[in-house]
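Gas vesicle protein GvpE (Halarchaeum acidiphilum MH1-52-1), 172 aa
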Amino acid sequence: MKRTRDRYGESSGTESTSASVETLLRELDGGAGSGPSTDVSPARLLDALRTVEGVDEGFRFDETIVKHSLDELLLVLVALRADGTHGKQLMDDLAGTFDADLSPGTVYPRLHDLEESGTIDVHEMVRTKEYTVADETDARDRVRDAMRQHLAIGRVLHHALTDDALFATDAD
């Protein structure tokens, strides 16, 4: 089974509210396309997110925030590559998708920690190591927890900016 067809999301009671990567892309693309997407690359996901109203054209990720969420981002990037991926490809994905030029000394220890926790598997190849998701439940839970934290912080910041009493402008 291709990992891109796996469902990630939350359930409420017996009714599932989860969405596949293809469904997410279709929703972000405004419903265009009837079948599953064949391109679920990290860059395409980011491009789709940038088309959402409120995300300005010049938006860039802060490398400090990328580092803070590196474990979860690595899990997502590994999951997007259904047949596995290697560390260099992950570093290229981080650079291309999140404009984060992270050193091997930052990325590889995190991959090692994810392996030690049993969340990813590492397969020794001839000249490299290939990473795949080993424990999809743990990976999904880690990504979901990080998402909830970021959304909660984002909501607090959004309300602070939209609440006239918090930050009065000079025009007031």
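The first helix runs from residue 21 to 28. The helical segments are 21-28, 42-50, 63-68, 70-80, 87-98, 104-116, 136-162. ok done for today
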